[in-house]
Amino acid sequence: MFGKKAFQPLAGPLPPLGLLDFESTMKFREDALEQYRANGWDTAVLLDWMIRTLLSSLMADSASRIFLPKTETSPFELDDLLPLSAAAPTGRIKLPLNRVFLLAPVWNNRETAEELHQATRRSPEELEEGESVGVYLKELNLAIVDADPHESLCCRFLGRGTVVLDSYSLRDLAPIIRTDGQDWFVTEEDGEESYCPVLEPRMAALYRLGLERYYPKLLAAQREEK
User: Fold this and answer.
1) 158-174: per-residue pLDDT in tens?
2) 12-34: b or e for each residue (b if 16 or more CB lie within 10 Å)?
3) Between β-strands 162-168 and 91-96, what pairing exists: parallel, antiparallel or unpaired?
4) Is the separation of the CB atoms in 212 and 47 below 8 Å?
5) Are 144 and 97 in contact, with CB atoms under 8 Å apart?
6) Going edge to edge, which strands form the sheet with 183-187?
7) Residue 179's closest CA among 25, 72, 74, 62?
8) Is there a contact between 158 and 84 (Cβ–Cβ < 8 Å)?
9) What Rg value do the Cα atoms of the chain yield, rounded?
10) Using 50, 70 and 90 to split pLDDT, how confident is the model at 7?
11) Around Cβ 109, how many Cβ atoms within 10 Å?
């Protein structure tokens, strides 16, 4: 299903955060968890903080993508961030845009500026309807919009509107998708495993931390199956 792709600078779905990589993030997690356990502190607080920090970082970079030269960035594809095409959603959900962490990587500066103007003129009712425009990772409260990202980004900025998304749970993804920080590994329907490169290390770290926070037994099962 997935083949190895050559990495090119600025070819990923989001601009990389300087100095952040999967290995150093996991090393920090390991050292901090050791300290928390030694002192009898609540490790869930640490994991929640790491998850929220990564989400905030991704959300900020997604919004600032409008300022990047568009000739140097490739079109956003959801599988470049997380290979969700390998899994089926559990359903659909309608959510207020101002209550989620939103990744909506816009690809056209002019259209985004125009959409901001149009969004201020729409009635709230006009923002209620529509087909699914992306995906929602329930445990992370993360909405990733890959259709009409300009509209979602501008509505989020204005604090209005809802969005319809295909919903996924980390619990259902864990038996299908795993990562070592360098690659995503996908278990196909025939039981074979394919892989594709991690282009955004923050997403790989979020996925691993989310599993550790909410489904540690499933994460342990992944490690045993490697």
Assistant:
1) 888 899 999 999 999 99
2) bbbbeeeeebbeebbeebeebbe
3) antiparallel
4) yes
5) no
6) 177-179, 183-187, 193-197
7) 25
8) no
9) 18
10) very low
11) 15
**Beta-carbon neighbour count of residue 189 at 10 Å?**
8
Residues 13 and 80 sit within 8 Å (Cβ to Cβ) = yes
DSSP sequence for 157-220: HHT--EEEEEEE-HHHHTTTEEE-SSEEEEE-TTS-EEEEE-S-HHHHHHHHHHHHHH-HHHHH
191 to 2, 47, 131, 188, 210: CA distances (angstroms)? 14, 32, 32, 5, 24
Tokens representing residue 91 in the block = 């359903």
Structure tokens at 94: 């309608």
DSSP the chain: --------TT-SSSPPPTT--HHHHHHHHHHHHHHHHHHT--HHHHHHHHHHHHHHHHHHHHHHGGGS-GGGSPPP-HHHH--GGGS--SEEEEEEGGGSEEE-----HHHHHHHHHHHHHS-GGGGT-----EEEETTTTEEEE-SSHHHHHHHHHHT--EEEEEEE-HHHHTTTEEE-SSEEEEE-TTS-EEEEE-S-HHHHHHHHHHHHHH-HHHHHHHHHH-
- Cα 184 from Cα 91, distance rounded (Å): 24
Write out the two tokens for 86: 């390998």
Residues 84-99: tens digit of each pLDDT: 999 999 999 999 999 9
Comparing C-alpha atoms, which of 120, 130, 123 is closest to residue 95? Answer: 130
220: closest CA among 208, 203, 206?
Answer: 208
